């Protein structure tokens, strides 16, 4: 069990009380619109956490599979599904090791549920690429994907030379030591937790290399989603992409 697994198990019961989870009611219709979901469509939610997007999507009649590293997060998600009287397929798995056999009409990976989170031993150059490849391979051709990643522009603007000297911020891998342990003091020392940031150009190029058609890179901070230019200091970027089909080229 790596430190991220330990963290999310310990964090599960308080996750839905955080300020960045409070805009779910507006986020779900945004996803339905921009994923272009048809009635009964299948949706893969990677890093689904407590199911705050999976369950409302299931309530709208979509067939949802939620994947998460944390069994405790999935236990909360199942309670949410039971309360809503809907069925969601939950899978406990490291997203980098998850290879679904089913094909999905659309996928989401939101709020650093899997992407950008590096545990000790994870390669910052290949970890996220593997997750994006697994999601790509699970999508039907033309299937849409909404992704949040951490904004490297904010990381760079906030970092100091002292941060690079101490190792808190590594400019070569664009990673920083995570402060999420502050949310769960009982977790103790989890200094191996690192978070990876991306510039808009870098995440676009990575998705293209995997085989996605990138439709746009936008501002994506929780509570302020929109198809708008990213702000330099916002926490997250949002990428709208699709699994490329023959003859489709990158459009933005």
What does this structure look like?
- The protein has 252 residues and is of the alpha/beta class.
- Helices cover 32% and strands 25% of the residues.
- Strands 1, 2, 3, 4, 5, 6, 7, 8, 9, 10 and 11 form an 11-stranded mixed sheet that branches.
- β1, α3 and β2 form a beta-alpha-beta unit.
- The longest helix is centred in the N-terminal third of the chain and has 14 residues, at 71-84.
- The protein is globular.
Task: Write a brief caption for the model.
The chain is an alpha/beta fold and 252 residues long.
- Shape type: globular
Low-confidence stretches: 247-252
CATH architecture classification name: 3-Layer(aba) Sandwich
- Total domains: 1
Average of per-residue pLDDT values: 92
Q: What is the CATH homology-level superfamily?
A: Vaccinia Virus protein VP39
What summary fits the major beta sheet? 11 strands, mixed
The counted number of beta strands is 11
What name does CATH use for the topology? Answer: Rossmann fold
Percent of residues in helices comes to 25-40%
- Topology pattern, helix = H, strand = E: HHEHEHEEEHEHHEEEHEE
- Derived from helix and strand composition plus strand pairing, the structural class reads alpha/beta
Estimate the strand proportion: 15-25%
What's the multimeric state? single chain
Determine the N-to-C terminus distance. 39 Å
CATH class identity: Alpha Beta
* Number of helices in the DSSP assignment: 8
* Gyration radius from CA atoms, angstroms: 17 Å
